[in-house]
Design a protein that fits this description.
mainly alpha; 4 helices; 62% helix; CHP01589_pln
Amino acid sequence: MHHNNKHPFPCLNCHPHSYIRMVQHLIERCLLLHMDRDQCIKALAEHAKIRPLITLTGSLSAFICAIN
């Protein structure tokens, strides 16, 4: 088992679709705060413990680029 119950977030390995939706939602919240891409990546890494590689990968990267 890849996850622990220390936080309420979905596990990337166990529930990848839920995890990606959660990251997308957090990115949208960053946008509401008028954060740029780098600020968003830093905030997700610091506050939600989401690795920058995850934020910059695949469709999430396209999503971030489309909004900037």
